[in-house]
Amino acid sequence: MDNKYFNVLELEKIIDLLSQKASSELGRNIIKNLEPMSDYYKVKNSLEETSEAQSILIKRGHIPLAGINDIANYTKRAELGAVLDAASLLKVCDTMRASRLISNILSKNIKVETFGNEETSVWQNDDTINYPIIQSLASSLYIHKDIEEDIGNAIVSEIEISDSASSELRNIRRKIIQKNQSIRSRLNTIISSTTYQKYLQDAIISMRGDRFVVPVKSEYRSVVNGIVHDQSSSGATLFIEPMSIVDMNNDLRQLKLREREEIDRILADLSDKVGSVCRELISNQEILARIDFAFSKAKLSISMRAIEPVLNSNNKFKIIKGRHPLLEKDKVVANTVYLGDEFSTLLITGPNTGGKTVTIKMVGLFALMTQCGLHIPADYGSSMCVFDNIFADIGDAQSIEQNLSTFSSHMTRIVDITQQVSKKSLVIFDELGAGTDPEEGEALAIAILEDIKRAGALCIATTHYSALKKYALAKKDVENAAVEFDMDTLSPTYRLMIGVPGKSNAFEISKKIGLKTYIIEEAKEFLSSDDIELEEVLQGIEKNRIKIDEELENIELLKKEIEFNKEQYERKINKFQASKDKMLEDARSQAFSIVRDTKESSEKIIKELKELEKINEAKDRDRRIESIRKEISQNMGSLQPSLESIVVPKYSSKEIKSLKPGQNVDIVTLRQEGVIISSDDKKKEALVQVGIMKMMLPYKSLKVSDKKAKSNVSKSTRKIIRSKSGNIKREVDLRGMNLEEAIMEVEKYLDDASMAGHEEVTIIHGMGTGVLKKGINEWLKKNVHAKSFRPGQYGEGGPGVTIVKIK
Length: 807
Hints:
The chain is an alpha+beta fold. Among the domains are: 3-144 and 277-304, Orthogonal Bundle (MutS, DNA mismatch repair protein, Chain A, domain 3); 167-268, MutS, DNA mismatch repair protein, Chain A, domain 3, CATH 1.10.1420; 310-505, Rossmann fold (3-Layer(aba) Sandwich); 648-709, SH3 type barrels (Roll), CATH 2.30.30.30. The chain is built from 23 helices and 27 strands. The strands form eight sheets. A six-stranded mixed β-sheet has the order 14-15-16-12-17-18, sandwiched between helices. It is flat and about 160 Å long.
């Protein structure tokens, strides 16, 4: 690739952003020399490498890349036998540690967690994560933990060796400390004695070189026996080493020389260990640089909200909602651009400052970024191909020194492009044909585009020439595009519209700026009729397009709303089905419990009935039977549904206000027909004859039938009523019956009495023990035919009878 076109597309600014993401100088060196690749498989591998590193950063968080140093020079010197200083060995140690941590983290499923200042690797049981490129690099790193620990234990800082570096060094330093203490003790005795105090300038101990001295007044030089090592600037003070500590200072000097020799030996030993793995350390350095580079690309991708484009080998691309990476994220307008499928040349027209140049630069920059292995800031589904060359003629490169005009400078670049272009190239022109006579510029621009087409290259260009718009409309493999212009605000929206030629809007913009109206109108007269017609057509297309876009946007909103409602509906159905299944399961469980309890109760009752057969006393037997009956009623009462819950529909279409005897009705939930025998409009209840059955039902459960009852049914009903009226007495005698038999008899009697139309009847139960009377009275409270009842009065039978009023 010809790198002179890279700066035109501002690739160097992307390289600078990438360099800021690197953690080491090694990574920055790779980035500094980064250039787009033309090999499909190399580009694909580099993009996948970026994606893997991006995924690791997103899923695992921070990756420790600190401590990576350029140690090639140190290791080579060590291999040749040179002794490395502490600072160099520390850099080697840091790089070894970085290699070990990165290998542990990236070659396996491990996450780094930080506790205080320490980083700890924690195993992750996630077999689905697989990063073959990054893991392959990490697993190729050599680990030298023993050498790393030896250096770390021996060297504290760039100027300090640890006491634990060797036992000999520890002993020597202990002796040095002891000797220092002895010397200081001797000197303290001297400076604190009354004899020497008058000779000393100050009662302090000083150092000159590596010798202990005391400050003595110069006039007492002959009094203090010792060696002069220094004097003050004024000459008033001499720094003398007393003869009594000379030997001790000499011993201290010897110990320090031995310390230096031992340190040299330790450094030599560590250097020898580093030299023995020189080749492996250099290999690690290259791998670490590559890993740092990969994660730099990943960090840039995350900061740009970028994605890996789908790479194709079909010489086409589709950028979906691409955003120029050098513009502000919150302000840049996303655009979709595609080339290579339906057309190979795209001509973008529209007003100045409308975003044409930004769009074509974005296309060229995305192509370069892709071929550098970088992600592009676009939406998923974007696809890019690999070009052998990317040419760009953008901007004014006129040169006074080379005597080149604007047109000449453009043509110089265009000549170079036409000589090198191939079917695998991308060509970008900005203001093609500008800088010369418009008619000649138009003709020349069309000829250049035809030459690029013949070469088979993809081309994207901007222009203001109407002839080029017509050319794009006429040619099959060429397409128009425009940058949108808001006619209401007379300002660009920076949105690209493919398939529509754009207007320059020169007259509208000039009018907005303040150019006089008559000048604009006069200018329009100089336009040819063809140009005016084309502009009017374009304006009509633009209006229709805006309307269609609005309608499509509304359709999309409705589509999303429908999809949302569909999801909500399906969710409710699923929830209802789950609730239904649970309720059925609970009902089955409850039914099983009821059946089981009923079975147990039945067996108990059967057993008690068998025992009752043995009881001779009728009263006791009747009392026990009545007790069992009540128990059964209580047990069944909680299980039996109410009449209203069975017969009253949940949704009533029309409320009945009044019913009359003889009316035909439908019982809605039972799907049966009936005839009203009697009704109560206040209570909203009616006695209904259904076949041979009579039921007291609420009005809510009934629906007035439109058809008349069949004549044979009416005759039959009237016949039964007349028969009952003539045969049914106004009293029933229950004496000698037990309670159960009496209730059955009274129930049948009241049905017949009600049908016969009796208003009041007498129930004869006698005095007895009172069980029969009490049981009958309790039962009458619940009977549907009994409107009211009372004890008999004198002359009616007294307490031995009960008078019942029939509804």
